[in-house]
Protein backbone atom coordinates (compact mmCIF):
# COMPACT_ATOMS: atom_id res chain seq x y z
CA UNK A 1 0.00 0.00 0.00
CA UNK A 2 1.00 3.64 -0.40
CA UNK A 3 -0.15 7.11 0.53
CA UNK A 4 -0.22 10.02 -1.88
CA UNK A 5 0.52 13.19 0.06
CA UNK A 6 2.22 16.57 0.18
CA UNK A 7 4.89 16.78 2.87
CA UNK A 8 4.24 20.42 3.75
CA UNK A 9 0.44 20.19 4.01
CA UNK A 10 -1.21 19.80 7.44
CA UNK A 11 -3.68 16.99 6.70
CA UNK A 12 -1.05 14.57 5.37
CA UNK A 13 0.99 15.33 8.48
CA UNK A 14 -1.96 14.22 10.60
CA UNK A 15 -1.87 10.82 8.90
CA UNK A 16 1.91 10.56 9.24
CA UNK A 17 1.67 11.30 12.96
CA UNK A 18 -1.12 8.78 13.39
CA UNK A 19 0.90 6.06 11.68
CA UNK A 20 4.03 7.00 13.63
CA UNK A 21 2.12 6.56 16.88
CA UNK A 22 1.01 3.14 15.65
CA UNK A 23 4.52 2.22 14.51
CA UNK A 24 3.25 1.56 10.97
CA UNK A 25 5.74 2.15 8.14
CA UNK A 26 4.42 3.42 4.84
CA UNK A 27 5.49 4.26 1.30
CA UNK A 28 4.71 7.90 0.55
CA UNK A 29 4.29 9.35 -2.94
CA UNK A 30 4.75 13.12 -3.05
CA UNK A 31 2.20 15.18 -4.98
CA UNK A 32 2.96 18.83 -5.78
CA UNK A 33 -0.30 20.59 -4.98
CA UNK A 34 1.11 24.03 -5.83
CA UNK A 35 1.65 22.83 -9.40
CA UNK A 36 -1.79 21.20 -9.40
CA UNK A 37 -0.58 17.59 -9.65
CA UNK A 38 -3.41 16.64 -7.31
CA UNK A 39 -5.89 17.76 -9.99
CA UNK A 40 -4.59 15.42 -12.66
CA UNK A 41 -6.85 12.76 -14.16
CA UNK A 42 -4.76 10.09 -12.44
CA UNK A 43 -5.23 11.63 -8.99
CA UNK A 44 -8.91 12.41 -9.56
CA UNK A 45 -9.43 8.75 -10.35
CA UNK A 46 -8.15 8.04 -6.84
CA UNK A 47 -10.07 10.91 -5.20
CA UNK A 48 -12.63 12.84 -7.29
CA UNK A 49 -12.14 15.91 -5.09
CA UNK A 50 -8.47 16.04 -6.01
CA UNK A 51 -7.33 16.33 -2.41
CA UNK A 52 -4.51 14.68 -0.47
CA UNK A 53 -3.84 12.47 1.38
CA UNK A 54 -5.08 9.37 -0.42
CA UNK A 55 -4.40 5.83 0.78
CA UNK A 56 -4.13 3.26 -2.01
CA UNK A 57 -4.37 -0.36 -0.89
CA UNK A 58 -2.63 -3.24 -2.63
CA UNK A 59 -5.86 -4.24 -4.37
CA UNK A 60 -6.27 -0.75 -5.84
CA UNK A 61 -8.90 0.45 -3.36
CA UNK A 62 -8.42 4.15 -2.64
CA UNK A 63 -9.43 5.81 0.62
CA UNK A 64 -9.38 9.59 0.83
CA UNK A 65 -10.12 11.92 3.78
CA UNK A 66 -7.79 12.02 6.76
CA UNK A 67 -10.31 10.66 9.27
CA UNK A 68 -11.24 7.76 6.99
CA UNK A 69 -7.60 6.80 6.50
CA UNK A 70 -6.94 6.91 10.24
CA UNK A 71 -10.11 4.92 10.94
CA UNK A 72 -8.87 2.20 8.60
CA UNK A 73 -5.54 1.90 10.39
CA UNK A 74 -7.19 2.02 13.81
CA UNK A 75 -9.31 -0.94 12.73
CA UNK A 76 -6.46 -3.07 11.43
CA UNK A 77 -4.10 -2.16 14.28
CA UNK A 78 -6.06 -1.16 17.41
CA UNK A 79 -2.99 -0.72 19.62
CA UNK A 80 -2.15 1.80 20.81
CA UNK A 81 -5.72 3.09 20.68
CA UNK A 82 -5.98 6.62 19.31
CA UNK A 83 -9.74 6.67 18.69
CA UNK A 84 -10.97 5.05 21.92
CA UNK A 85 -11.92 1.56 23.06
CA UNK A 86 -15.21 1.81 24.96
CA UNK A 87 -18.35 3.30 23.39
CA UNK A 88 -18.06 6.38 25.60
CA UNK A 89 -14.39 6.87 24.75
CA UNK A 90 -15.01 6.46 21.04
CA UNK A 91 -17.88 8.94 21.07
CA UNK A 92 -16.01 11.49 23.19
CA UNK A 93 -12.89 11.33 21.03
CA UNK A 94 -14.97 11.52 17.85
CA UNK A 95 -16.75 14.59 19.25
CA UNK A 96 -13.55 16.46 20.07
CA UNK A 97 -11.89 15.36 16.85
CA UNK A 98 -14.82 16.73 14.86
CA UNK A 99 -14.84 20.03 16.77
CA UNK A 100 -11.09 20.54 16.45
CA UNK A 101 -11.28 19.69 12.76
CA UNK A 102 -14.18 22.05 12.00
CA UNK A 103 -13.52 24.90 14.41
CA UNK A 104 -9.72 25.01 14.18
CA UNK A 105 -8.16 23.05 11.31
CA UNK A 106 -10.77 24.05 8.72
CA UNK A 107 -10.74 27.69 9.84
CA UNK A 108 -6.95 27.86 9.62
CA UNK A 109 -7.15 26.29 6.17
CA UNK A 110 -9.75 28.80 4.97
CA UNK A 111 -7.69 31.65 6.38
CA UNK A 112 -4.66 30.38 4.46
CA UNK A 113 -6.47 29.82 1.17
CA UNK A 114 -8.39 33.10 1.17
CA UNK A 115 -5.78 35.51 2.55
CA UNK A 116 -2.61 34.24 0.83
CA UNK A 117 -4.00 33.55 -2.65
CA UNK A 118 -1.94 30.34 -2.74
CA UNK A 119 -4.57 28.63 -4.92
CA UNK A 120 -5.81 31.70 -6.80
CA UNK A 121 -5.23 29.87 -10.10
CA UNK A 122 -8.04 27.44 -9.21
CA UNK A 123 -10.32 29.31 -6.79
CA UNK A 124 -11.54 32.82 -6.09
CA UNK A 125 -10.09 34.07 -2.80
CA UNK A 126 -12.29 36.21 -0.55
CA UNK A 127 -9.84 37.94 1.81
CA UNK A 128 -12.53 39.14 4.22
CA UNK A 129 -13.81 35.58 4.58
CA UNK A 130 -10.27 34.39 5.18
CA UNK A 131 -9.71 36.99 7.89
CA UNK A 132 -12.94 36.00 9.62
CA UNK A 133 -11.90 32.35 9.48
CA UNK A 134 -8.66 33.32 11.20
CA UNK A 135 -10.61 35.12 13.91
CA UNK A 136 -12.76 32.02 14.41
CA UNK A 137 -9.69 29.81 14.73
CA UNK A 138 -8.17 32.14 17.32
CA UNK A 139 -11.41 32.11 19.31
CA UNK A 140 -11.47 28.31 19.38
CA UNK A 141 -8.04 28.29 21.00
CA UNK A 142 -9.76 29.82 24.03
CA UNK A 143 -12.14 26.84 24.18
CA UNK A 144 -9.20 24.43 24.11
CA UNK A 145 -7.49 26.47 26.82
CA UNK A 146 -10.48 25.95 29.13
CA UNK A 147 -10.74 22.27 28.21
CA UNK A 148 -7.07 21.66 29.04
CA UNK A 149 -7.62 23.21 32.45
CA UNK A 150 -9.52 20.03 33.32
CA UNK A 151 -7.76 17.33 31.31
CA UNK A 152 -4.18 16.59 30.22
CA UNK A 153 -5.29 15.94 26.64
CA UNK A 154 -8.07 17.33 24.50
CA UNK A 155 -10.36 14.30 24.61
CA UNK A 156 -9.54 13.38 28.20
CA UNK A 157 -6.84 11.45 30.00
CA UNK A 158 -5.03 10.00 26.99
CA UNK A 159 -3.33 11.23 23.80
CA UNK A 160 -5.67 10.73 20.83
CA UNK A 161 -6.30 11.68 17.23
CA UNK A 162 -7.85 14.94 18.50
CA UNK A 163 -4.47 16.01 19.86
CA UNK A 164 -2.84 15.17 16.53
CA UNK A 165 -5.33 17.33 14.64
CA UNK A 166 -4.95 20.22 17.08
CA UNK A 167 -1.15 20.13 16.97
CA UNK A 168 -1.07 20.08 13.17
CA UNK A 169 -3.61 22.92 12.98
CA UNK A 170 -1.71 25.08 15.47
CA UNK A 171 1.61 24.51 13.72
CA UNK A 172 0.11 25.32 10.33
CA UNK A 173 -1.59 28.37 11.82
CA UNK A 174 1.78 30.08 12.19
CA UNK A 175 1.83 30.52 8.40
CA UNK A 176 -1.07 32.98 8.75
CA UNK A 177 0.02 34.35 12.14
CA UNK A 178 -2.48 32.40 14.23
CA UNK A 179 -0.47 31.68 17.36
CA UNK A 180 -0.82 30.71 20.98
CA UNK A 181 -1.07 33.80 23.18
CA UNK A 182 0.40 34.59 26.58
CA UNK A 183 -2.97 33.82 28.19
CA UNK A 184 -2.95 30.26 26.84
CA UNK A 185 -1.03 28.71 29.72
CA UNK A 186 -2.73 25.32 29.57
CA UNK A 187 -2.48 25.14 25.79
CA UNK A 188 1.21 26.02 25.87
CA UNK A 189 1.90 23.31 28.45
CA UNK A 190 -0.05 20.78 26.36
CA UNK A 191 1.69 21.97 23.19
CA UNK A 192 5.09 21.48 24.78
CA UNK A 193 4.27 17.90 25.75
CA UNK A 194 2.74 16.75 22.48
CA UNK A 195 5.42 18.49 20.41
CA UNK A 196 8.03 16.38 22.16
CA UNK A 197 6.45 13.12 21.06
CA UNK A 198 8.48 11.28 18.44
CA UNK A 199 5.49 11.24 16.11
CA UNK A 200 5.49 15.05 15.97
CA UNK A 201 8.59 14.81 13.76
CA UNK A 202 6.69 12.76 11.15
Features:
202 residues, alpha+beta, Glutaredoxin, Glutathione S-transferase Yfyf (Class Pi), Chain A, domain 2, 2 domains, four-stranded mixed β-sheet, 7 helices, 52% helix
Topology:
Layout: E1 2-5, H1 10-22, E2 27-30, H2 41-46, E3 54-56, E4 62-64, H3 66-76, H4 87-116, H5 127-147, H6 161-173, H7 185-195
Parallel strand pairs: 1-2
Antiparallel strand pairs: 1-3, 3-4
Helix pairs in contact: 1-3, 1-6, 4-5, 4-6
Describe the overall structure.
- There is one protein chain.
- A hairpin with a 5-residue loop joins strand 3 and strand 4.
- The two termini are 18 Å apart.
- This protein is 52% helix and 7% strand.
- A four-stranded mixed beta sheet has the order 2-1-3-4, with helices on one face.
- The chain is globular and about 50 Å long.
- The relative contact order is 0.14.
- Helix 1 packs antiparallel against helix 6, helix 4 (87-116) packs antiparallel against helix 5 (127-147) and helix 4 runs parallel beside helix 6.
- It folds into two domains: 2-76, Glutaredoxin; 87-201, Glutathione S-transferase Yfyf (Class Pi), Chain A, domain 2.
- By secondary structure, the chain is of the alpha+beta class.
- It contains seven helices and four strands.
- The protein has helices spanning 10-22, 41-46, 66-76, 87-116, 127-147, 161-173, 185-195; strands spanning 2-5, 27-30, 54-56, 62-64.
